[in-house]
Amino acid sequence: MENAKSWISTRSGGKLVAALAAKSKHLTAEQMAAKQREISVSEFFAKNRHLLGFDNPRKALLTTIKEAVDNSLDACEEAGILPEILVEIHQLEEDRFRVVIEDNGPGIVKAQVPNIFGKLLYGSKFHSRRQSRGQQGIGISAAGLYGQMTTGKGPLIVSKTKRGKAHRFQIQLDSTKNKPVITKDDELDEWHLKHGTRFEINIEARYQRGKGSVDDYIKQTAVANPHARFVYRAPVDEEERVYDRAVKDVPERADEIKPHPYGVELGELMKMLRTTNSRWLSGFLQEEFCRVGPKVAKEIIAKAKLGERSYPSRIAREEADALYRAIQDTKISAPPTTCLSPIGEERIREGLMKECDADFYSVATRPPAVYRGNPFQIEVGIAWSKPGDDRLDVDEKGRIRKTKKKRGTFDTEDLLGNADEPVRLLRFANRVPLLSQQSGCGFTKAVIGTAWKNYGLSQSKGALPLGSAVILIHMASVWVPFTSEAKEAIAPYNEILKEVKLALQEAGRKLGAHIRKNKRVAAEFEKRTYIEKYLPHVGIGLQEILGISDEDREDLVNTLHESMENTRKI
């Protein structure tokens, strides 16, 4: 056998051995090194677009509109402008749609337009510690990338600032280098808006109504943003649906704060020590962090066994670790809450009343709390409607009257369901609706963990309560702990769950009191109906017994009716 192998190798001049080696599936270290290269963030998300909410055509349509509307609302509010937002969906083919979002915001300067819409992880809010809808600088550019991948066309943007002219850009996204390529740059002599931005993109998508749809998103956004006006044109009937604003005041702009010592980890602390402009360690603690004054700084340095005049840039890893542990061991006041801009109880009530016709509204707001050094605030609103088409009201004279319920003009789907269905849960983070992954959201776990039977709603173990009701939960925070980059669910941190449950219980107590009162009123109305029904018969019986005239009988019946009303008032 060995002689045969030797003869073959000799006869082929070693070519057979070389061919066998070439067919080997194993690589050498040098071959592996030759294939390695840097991966841009655009390439990564182009291959893993499901991480950003582009899982399927239906969800891609929603994510595209959501990211653009969020940017429009943020821009308008930062400029102190009452938002006027147009959303249009035009069906081009069976699976091709053109999405248009236009706002009356401050506009974007010409030099920044290509980067904002054509470069992932480019923005001004990632390092900012104040409440805003966008945080990562990835959403709207990812929508443009998705459109380019599915239709071959990049986004078209028109923007105009108050003092400049309108510019129209057509861009393509270079995913290899993560940078925009401008294919068209025109200056428009006239544009119908004095200032604002228009974003157009062709995408592969699927339009479908129902829960979690674009229609549902627009409606919920109108609830959480009652200061905004939305004009929405759906692709099916081309009907223009207008969601007018309920309030005419722009929300107060949140202030930016410095990081809180409790929210900084050791690696970040070491980075801050290397890059600070402070000369002394004491000044570093006071200038780089909030809620750290001279007394607290001195206490931290003493616990770390360092000197107040130590050079921050020369502190070694062991000393930084001691400083970090000293910070965690020192009692420091909670961060300021001026960085938050909650919706407010009155606005939540106005938003719910504007978009769902209920019998009762209950709103509760918790005081600001902190998780991992980040301030946040929880707000809850409940809209409840008595089952059936009729409701009982008490008029100005104290009389019980039955009235018909009214429905909204532009209801694509009634937010209030039937009494035997689970309540509708509306989840919001920084005024943005969360429409997917409800079962994995911390808000859902908090609602399920609340004993709703105490507040008049039936509930099975481990399920949402049943009833014709809407439960709105809003979290305002400088950094929302989403479970993924798609920003669809809130992580169930214990600090957050506790605050949500307390807010739900506070609003639930008001609801329970109203339901109990409503049951008493209903029982009284039923009894009064019976009495009113049989009072004429009582009058006839008394007339036969007492032998009185028809006129006296009518007077007697009226007297009994008045006595019944007086007794009810007492």
**CATH top-level class of the largest domain:** Alpha Beta
Structural class: alpha+beta
Global mean pLDDT: 85
> Which sequence of strands runs across the widest sheet?
5-4-3-6-2-1-7-8
Oligomer designation: single chain
Total discrete domains: 4
* Beta-strand content: 15-25%
Q: Main beta sheet, described? A: 8 strands, mixed
Named CATH topology of the largest domain:
Heat Shock Protein 90
CATH superfamily heading of the largest domain: Histidine kinase-like ATPase, C-terminal domain
How far the N terminus sits from the C terminus, by CA atoms, comes to: 116 Å
Query: Helical content, roughly?
Result: 25-40%
Radius of gyration: 33 Å
Question: Uncertain runs with pLDDT below 50, 5 residues or more?
Answer: 7-11, 406-412
Number of alpha- plus pi-helical segments: 16
Q: Could you tell me the number of beta strands?
A: 16
Overall geometric form = globular
Architecture blueprint of SSEs:
Layout: H1 2-11, H2 15-22, H3 29-35, H4 41-47, H5 57-78, E1 84-93, E2 96-103, H6 113-118, H7 139-151, E3 156-160, E4 166-174, E5 179-188, E6 196-204, H8 214-224, E7 229-233, E8 240-243, H9 266-275, H10 281-288, H11 294-304, H12 317-329, H13 345-355, E9 360-365, E10 369-371, E11 374-384, E12 390-394, E13 400-404, E14 424-429, E15 432-434, H14 442-448, E16 469-477, H15 494-546, H16 550-569
Parallel strand pairs: 1-7, 14-16
Antiparallel strand pairs: 1-2, 2-6, 3-4, 3-6, 4-5, 7-8, 9-11, 10-11, 11-16, 12-13, 14-15
Helix pairs in contact: 5-7, 8-13, 10-11, 11-12, 14-15, 15-16
